[in-house]
Write a structure and sequence with these properties.
The protein is an all-alpha fold. The protein folds into two domains: 1-34; 37-86, no CATH class. It contains five helices and no strands. The termini are far apart.
Length: 87
C-alpha cells in the first residue's frame, strides 16, 4: 500500500523502514514463524477456523463457554470436537 499511495513521499518510506527494523529488533527469535497465542486451545491443539466462526456467531456458546480456549472436560474445545464428530 505504501508503494501504491505514498508516491514520492520520502518520509513515509523512512517511517516504514524504521518500523520494519523495529519489528525485527523486538521480535523474540524463539517464537516460531506464524505463531499466534490465540491459535490454540489450552491443550496446545490448533483451533479450527470453523470452531472460531461458530463461537463468534452464537451467543449461547459464549454464555456456556466464557473461555473459548478451554479444552478441558466441559470446555468449548471438548464440546466442539464432540459436536463435529457426531455430524
Amino acid at each position: 500500500m505504501t508503494r501504491r499511495y505514498a508516491g514520492e513521499n520520502v518520509e513515509v518510506y523512512e517511517l516504514w523502514t524504521w518500523y520494519k527494523h523495529q519489528i525485527v529488533k523486538n521480535t523474540d527469535p524463539a517464537i516460531p514463524k506464524g505463531w499466534w497465542f490465540y491459535g490454540k486451545y489450552s491443550n496446545g491443539e490448533p483451533i479450527p477456523k470453523a470452531a472460531r466462526e461458530l463461537y463468534r456467531r452464537r451467543d449461547d456458546l459464549k454464555a456456556a463457554f466464557p473461555d473459548p480456549y478451554d479444552s478441558s472436560q466441559g470446555g468449548y474445545g471438548e464440546w466442539y470436537d464432540k459436536e463435529i464428530s457426531a455430524i
